[in-house]
Design brief:
The complex is a heterodimer of chains A (361) and B (345). Chain A is mainly α. Chain A has 15 helices and 2 strands. Chain B is of the alpha/beta class and 345 residues long. In chain B, the strands form 2 sheets. In chain B, strands 7-8-9-3-10-11-13-12 form an 8-stranded mixed beta sheet, sandwiched between helices. A 5-stranded antiparallel beta sheet of chain B has the order 2-1-4-5-6. The chains are: A mainly alpha (361), B alpha/beta (345).
Chain lengths: 361, 345
């Protein structure tokens, strides 16, 4: 019956004439061959899946290793280097005038005499000393600490403010969006460098009495005013970006489906909208860190950064400019560290985006 | 079938403001639409693109705030704009032409979301790519707190997946790992999770290819038999709609022009628009198709921003008379449960 139905109806038809075939022409698939048809892979959670892809990315892994090494060094080093970042080298309690501008692993004359007379081995100056006879290695360590923390804290502040502001504006839209984005436009239209300089001057004055007796004193007013400045100014681009993302994502049918289910706005934002702009958030945050490090160096260069004797990578590079021809190492070291941090963060941001953006897979 | 209506929609209006230069003019996406659905019944809703089918579905579920009208679900008023109508369906106005307003009712929809659900058109954009199938189907359970333990949640999800013919071991996968038909099944499982009495199916098969369409449509029918759920089945494919529907409503430019039982509509179409729609249904046999008499409408659909006066179809209707330009014909009973809005037929 069935075979008759499947007979060719017309001469030119491409239909296969099944009457010419019987069971012997076909062979059952083996279990192995059947398994080949299972195209679906092992399924894992979102985080595990992303981490697995991240681990496969050599550039991102190298960046993580570099960043971990830098962080580990700046945490551990001060505990075994006997010098402090503000300490002028002294031997036997007397200031060592010959210790200025030493090369890497060099000892000053006074130190050599001291070692010869007591037989005690002094800790080497790994990167030599600066023109004020301070150990340069420990200064670089502290400079990296300051620069990295400024970068990370600024990026986190920008992320939090930008995320909240941008998602509210983007999600509710309409008049709320209009007013909120005009405020952003106003902040955006101000020249940021000028504002940063003005604000840091003002904050410096005002903050001093406020933080005098608190734990924040350790950081110094300059650092705190810098955090505030970043927090107040740099969130606007983040807010714009997140708003744009949310505007496009909230028109997806799955958001409508969530509304139809009765999901509340907060949950829709958290479960449906934000995870879908996660890749953009990750990469912008990762890029915010180097941009904050740059700005901090710029401010330090103008004398508005961290106050001496505390230092940052930017101010170290700036100080080294004067002796660039005689002591190029002092410029190269902080510059290379800035480059390493910035490059590693950028590559890591890229890697994270590739790993966690399921649309790219 | 019971006589009580599960859903009564009367004079539903949904206007969207559109800015044109300095003016804001209303786009009448849905204009004065009334129909009823009985428990366990399927009402098909057909019409060309842009005629407001989807808007009707979404407004029903209050995903949009209706401009006017009244929605009654299971005996409870969900929305009433307060406008009052006389027995002939005319708006009651006072001396100055303003409508006489009754009480306005606008309830919180959350408890009703458990009873009215929706299946979406595009199986690719209606599932969150960041969520596993388990979480997608589990979300309605989470929102309405329909389980007491993690174990119960999982069991419910797995049984839902089984109901729609999905493999239980796929629960931990992401939506993008599935084919179109499977994704639509996930969407259906999500809608069924709250055990609704009524589902709006917004062109659930038009994004699928024909063989998958048949599977999904048959599944809708099986689910209806098993669960007794009522559907508003929106589609533009008359064959599919005729197959699944008990009754069919035909829409044109935001208005319902004809409602009848599915077979009655097919055998005895009255409205000229329905006639041309039915004549456009593809016929599988080329011999018959060549002999068939296709009614090709002239001109384009008028812009919903500049609706013609009276009957919206009159600009393309070959029977149009002066009366059509004066007044919109009411949906009048032609016997046998057949209603048509036309002066001349």
């Amino acid at each position: 019956m069935q075979e008759e139905n499947l007979k060719k109806r017309q001469f030119l038809s491409a239909q296969v004439d099944l009457s010419k075939f019987n069971r012997s022409h076909f062979e059952a698939a083996t279990e192995d061959e059947k398994r080949q048809q299972d195209v679906m892979g092992e399924s894992t959670t979102f985080l595990k899946d992303g981490m697995r892809r991240l681990r496969k990315n050599p550039l991102a892994m190298a960046s993580i290793i570099v960043l971990l090494l830098i962080v580990l060094t700046i945490i551990v080093a001060p505990s075994f280097v006997p010098y402090s970042y503000s300490e002028i080298i002294s031997v036997n309690g007397k200031r060592d005038k010959s210790a200025a501008n030493l090369g890497p692993f060099e000892y000053s004359k006074a130190e050599q005499r001291y070692m010869k007379s007591t037989g005690e081995k002094l800790f080497p100056h790994i990167l030599g000393t600066d023109s004020l006879s301070r150990d340069y290695f420990i200064r670089v360590i502290y400079g990296t600490r300051v620069s990295l923390s400024v970068g990370v804290v600024a990026a986190i502040m920008v992320l939090i403010i930008g995320l909240v502001y941008g998602s509210v504006a983007g999600y509710f839209g309409g008049r709320v969006d209009l007013i909120m984005m005009r405020i952003v436009d106003i902040i955006y239209s101000l020249p940021d460098m000028l504002i940063i300089i003005l604000l840091s001057v003002v904050f410096n004055e005002r903050l001093k009495p406020l933080i005098d007796k608190t734990i924040l004193r350790v950081l110094g007013t300059n650092m705190i005013s810098m955090f505030l400045v970043f927090g107040l100014l740099y969130w606007v681009s983040m807010a714009r970006l997140i708003r744009g993302q949310i505007l496009s994502i909230k028109n997806n049918e799955y958001v409508l489906a969530a509304k139809c289910i009765g999901t509340k706005n907060g949950r829709i934002l958290r479960r449906h909208i934000l995870p879908n702009c996660l890749s953009v958030i990750i990469i912008t945050t990762a890029l915010q860190v180097p941009s904050a490090i740059f700005t901090e160096s710029y401010l330090s260069f103008l004398g508005l950064g961290v106050s001496a004797p505390l230092t940052s990578l930017g101010s170290l590079a700036n100080d080294a400019r004067a002796g660039m021809q005689s002591y190029p190492l002092r410029l190269v070291v902080p510059a290379v560290i800035i480059c390493l941090i910035v490059l590693a963060l950028n590559l890591l941001g890229d890697g994270l985006r590739d790993a966690f953006d399921s649309k790219l897979n | 079938m019971e006589n009580k209506n599960l859903l009564e929609v009367s004079h539903l209006k949904q206007y969207f403001p559109v800015r044109q230069g300095f003016h804001r003019i209303p786009l009448k996406a849905v204009d004065d639409v009334s129909f009823t659905i009985k428990p366990g019944e399927t009402l098909g809703l057909v019409g060309e693109s842009g005629c407001g089918k989807t808007t009707v579905g979404r407004t029903l579920l209050r995903l949009y705030q209706p401009t006017g009208g009244r929605i009654v679900f299971d005996g409870e008023v969900l929305f009433d704009s307060g406008e009052q109508y006389d027995d002939n369906g005319k708006l009651i106005t006072d001396g100055e032409g303003r409508p006489v307003m009754g009480t306005r009712i606008d309830v919180d929809m959350l408890p009703y979301r458990k009873q009215m659900q929706m299946v979406f058109q595009d199986p690719y954009s209606s599932l969150n790519p960041r969520m596993t199938v388990e979480d997608i189907i589990g979300e309605p359970l989470d929102v309405h707190k329909l389980y007491s333990s993690k174990k119960e949640r999982r069991e419910k999800i797995l049984s839902l997946m089984e109901t729609v013919g999905l493999n239980a071991e796929h629960a931990m996968r992401y939506a993008h790992e599935f084919s179109g038909g499977q994704r639509q099944r996930i969407g259906i499982a999500r809608a069924l999770a709250v055990n609704p009495k009524f589902i709006v199916c917004d062109e659930p098969v038009s994004a699928l290819d024909v063989s998958i369409q048949a599977q999904v449509v048959n599944m809708f029918e099986e689910l209806q038999e098993k669960l007794g759920v009522a559907y508003l089945f929106i589609a533009h494919d008359l064959l599919v709609v005729h197959h699944i529907s008990d009754r069919i409503a035909v829409m044109y430019l935001g208005k319902v022009v004809e409602i009848a039982d599915a077979d009655e509509l097919n055998a005895n179409p009255m409205h000229p628009y329905t006639l041309s729609l039915l004549s456009a249904v593809p016929i599988p046999d080329p011999e018959t198709a060549r002999k068939s008499n296709r009614i090709v409408l002239e001109g384009d659909v008028p812009s919903p921003l500049r609706m013609p006066s009276g009957c919206p179809f009159r600009t393309r209707c070959r029977y149009a008379t002066e009366q059509c330009a004066m007044e919109m014909p009411p949906l009048s009973d032609r016997g046998n449960g057949h209603f048509t809005a036309c002066w001349n037929k």
